[in-house]
Amino acid sequence: MLSRTADNLYWLARYVERAEYLARILDTTLRLITVPLSYGGGTNEWESAVASAGCANAFFAAYDEASEETVTDFLAFSSKNPSSIRNCFEIARLNARAVRTALTTEMWDTINGIWLELKNWNKGPSSREELARFLRWVMGSSLASCYENLVQNLDHIATAYGRQGPAQRQARAVRARLMNSRIEEIFQSGLHEFIGHFIEDNNRLGSAVAAQYLM
């Protein structure tokens, strides 16, 4: 029973994290399109958003062109996109219901509230301002801050089990890289490359946590 609860909490966190990540991509893109072309060149920022989200093939199978309307719908609201913010919160809510007694009232109300608002937005928000407000509601904290909390929680688990393991070591290594990163260096080496490496780090950590505690 404890293992099942831990598994539900783990996937709850993963899907909320995925939703937050997509919200940050959309929020950043909304900011970038307001920058003069002389700063950003002639690239299509909405195509970049889809590429950063790692779902370009699925997107272009559904849409002919990457625009503000199509990308926002696909990443945030589309029921046909398994990784949309809406679907992420749908799955997160199912996991939350399975472990309702293990959650704080605030956490449950937040997850349930976002899911209900997403459910009511059949075609997305009516304005950019409304979308920006919603995205900032979904978003919580920086990557470095998230990993700081992740390391602390893994250390608590290690104390309970009486031993450290690969999961703790990997989490600390990623946290150190994030804490030592500088935005100028990230842009110089490539934002998409940085995000791609971060996703790979997350996948490795997820596998390490599952192998260490859930199998």
Please indicate the percent range of residues in DSSP E strands (runs of 2 or more). under 5%
Which H/E pattern describes the elements?
A: HHHHHHHHHHHH
Based on Cα principal axes, name the global outline.
globular
Query: On the 0-100 scale, what is the average pLDDT?
Result: 82
Question: How much helix, percentage-wise, in residues?
Answer: over 70%
Indicate the structural class. Answer: mainly alpha
Number of strands: 0
Rg, please? 18 Å
The domain count comes to 2
Uncertain regions spanning at least 5 consecutive residues: none
Main sheet properties = none
Count helical runs.
Answer: 12
Describe the 3D structure.
It contains twelve helices and no strands. With 215 residues, the protein is an all-alpha fold. It has two domains: 1-140, no CATH class; 141-215. α1 (2-32) packs antiparallel against α5 and α1 packs antiparallel against α6 (85-98). It is globular and about 55 Å long.
At a glance:
The protein has helices at 2-32, 37-40, 45-53, 56-62, 68-77, 85-98, 105-120, 128-138, 143-161, 166-180, 183-189, 191-214.
Topology:
Layout: H1 2-32, H2 37-40, H3 45-53, H4 56-62, H5 68-77, H6 85-98, H7 105-120, H8 128-138, H9 143-161, H10 166-180, H11 183-189, H12 191-214
Helix pairs in contact: 1-3, 1-5, 1-6, 1-8, 6-7, 9-10, 10-12
Features:
215 residues; mainly alpha; 12 helices
